[in-house]
Design goal:
The structure is a single chain. The protein has helices at about 5-30, 35-45, 105-115, 115-139, and strands spanning about 50-55, 65-70, 75-80, 85-90. The chain folds into 2 domains: about 1-30; about 35-139, copper amine oxidase-like fold. The protein starts with 6 loop residues before the first helix and ends with a helix. Strand 2 and strand 3 (about 75-80) form a beta hairpin. The protein has a 4-stranded antiparallel sheet, with helices on one face. By secondary structure, the protein is α+β, with helices and mostly antiparallel strands. This is GSK3-beta interaction protein. Keywords: Cytoplasm. It is found in: Cytoplasm. GO terms for molecular function: kinase regulator activity; protein kinase A binding.
Amino acid sequence: METDCSPMELTNNTESEEDSDYRDFEEADVKDMRLEAEAVVNDVLFAVSNMFVSKTLPCAEDVAYINVETRERGRYCVELTDSGLRVVAYDFDQTDDSLQNPYHETVYSLLDTLSPAYREVFGNALLQRLEALKRDSQS
């Protein structure tokens, strides 16, 4: 019977795979808030006038800042941390330490409180998706 590797090589390969899995687990444990912020922006950009991750304010493992302009033309700087999202200023690329706005668990909750137009656009998009699913299931 031919083998591609000896049993000793197989043992060494298994050990390196375990080490690799452990390293992947360690790396996955560390969050990059910039990536989280980009995902938030991509998720709801369709429902606001403008939204982007700040290039002026610092991003780190534990914090990122997102600039949001609602359809009503309200401008906000939003802080994203493990605690959630909260408005930290009423203009782009700013922070105001005197503001004590509450954290929201999701971007949907935050935008729901800031923008009635967001609520309408998001609700309409959801309705269209549900109607499309219904049509697909009937055909």
